[in-house]
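Exam revision sheet. Question 4 asks you to relate a sequence to its structure. Input first:
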Amino acid sequence: MEQCARAVNHLHCIPRPHGPVLHRDIKPLNFLLDRHGTVKIGDFGLSKVRLSSRVMSTARGVGGSVRWMAPELFEGSSHASTASDIYALGMVLYEIVTTQIPWPNDRDPAIIAMIIRGKRPPLPEGEDDADDIPADLRSLIQSCWHEEASERPNALQVIATLKKIRTHVQATQQTLPSPISAFTPTAPVTPHPTLEVNVANAETVQSQSSSSRSSGNTDPSQPPPVQSASILTSSSSMQTVVHPTHIPLKHAPTSPQQQQQQEQAEQQQQQQRCQLAYLHQWSCKGKRGKPETPSGIAISPEHQLIFITDYYKHRVNVHTLDGTFVRRWGTKGAMSWSKWRRANGELRNPTGIAIKNETAFIVDSGNHRIQLLTLDGEFIRAFGKKGKSQGEFNDPFGIAVTDSSIYVTDRENNRVQVFDWNGKFIRQWGTFGNKASQFHFPYGICAADGHVYVCDTMNHRIQVFDEEGRFIHMWGKYGDKGGEFNGPIGIHVSGGRVFVADLDNYRVQVFASNRCFLTMVGTKEDEEGDGAGAGMFNRVWAVDVLDYRLYVADSSNKHIQVFEIDVEP
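Answer key, structure tokens:
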């Protein structure tokens, strides 16, 4: 069910000029399964591409299959919309849970009359009914069926509800012991299918649809081997998504050694189910509409706001998560006697930013200090100055904050310094070099789950430490393959996944917590060569994650791109 919703969402989220795409004939026959169990959507014979008020269509008339058509489509003055696709998706969910088509014993004229009168197929109910469905799922299907198109959920809301239902069902199943589990041999785990939709090749997909219907390492300094990957490219102006190829498990284990190998393979599969889907992007423009240069981003989950440091305009812009400008604060200090003034609250080339406990922690890089401000820009405190001693900085860049400590990458001094929230120096680690615990220009930093992740940028690798600065492991080398880097500059850890901004490879890479490469998104190979298209980058500096969404700051194209993260825990 969730994959079907993701397919519909992918069509609806395709940006102009290629979308959004209205399928207009959503029904079970048009959802196809490949040999890996991956859902694909096909039959675009009635699809529409909506361009502002103009609509491009592949067929004339209302079209569609009446059992899955929304009531407004039977009115002469109404047009197909994303909401009518959602209505049809609700019918598909109904068929999945009931295993029967809507109104199986009625002909089309009678079905049309019932739909117009507001009738819907009956859903199983009753505590004693073995076919009863969860209340949340029942409510979701009924909301998709709503008479008013404006009251129906969008595809993202459907996905979120289905995720919640699936998580609840999985948790319930884990708490119920199976009386036969002790006597059942371990079987290969079938990977949860991932979504692949290729709108640009709609004719190929449709052809496949028609034919389907007719034919029925132990060294801590080295990362684990990179798995083979398959690539899905929807068009030259759309995103490129790379995800690992599933590992085939063909035979049940016949010995303890084989069983152990199979368990390791299953665990690896489980860790590697991750995919990024482009949603939208928005330009970083301030109050007067002038383009900004995002150098760092941090999200406040409590306020649903994103804070963006502007490197060349020396300030912080605040936007909603959909890109609406809210406010900005900060200004560049004036020149005085050939020196920059360092007044409280003034910034010079700010880079990293972190948000915690209603406080913004900002790397005031050009002033070689850290500033703490309220989320409205009011000054709290600052610490640091230019130098090489403890508590001093030379072009600091990244910042990470925990409940008790502030971690700062001191770029030109090739070290990480740690402070308490009052700015008191605690410890430091790192020197110049290419060995473990040595750096060549450390940039991005992230603290998560008791670990500190550092972008060792000019060594083209990621180093991981505990909170005391003790080295744990590292991975990466110079290159452009999956798991290789060309200037890793930004990093964020969320949900056991490590997201890395790979600057001069124009992409974001994703890794499991065990350093296994999972997926990547991004390229600069568009017609103009500026990486300005959807899912493309020019100079990606920073990343952040909230609610299964990845936010990427592209400083050269001066915009934020948003991707949905499809991760199975």
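Marking note for examiners. The two ends are 18 Å apart (CA to CA).
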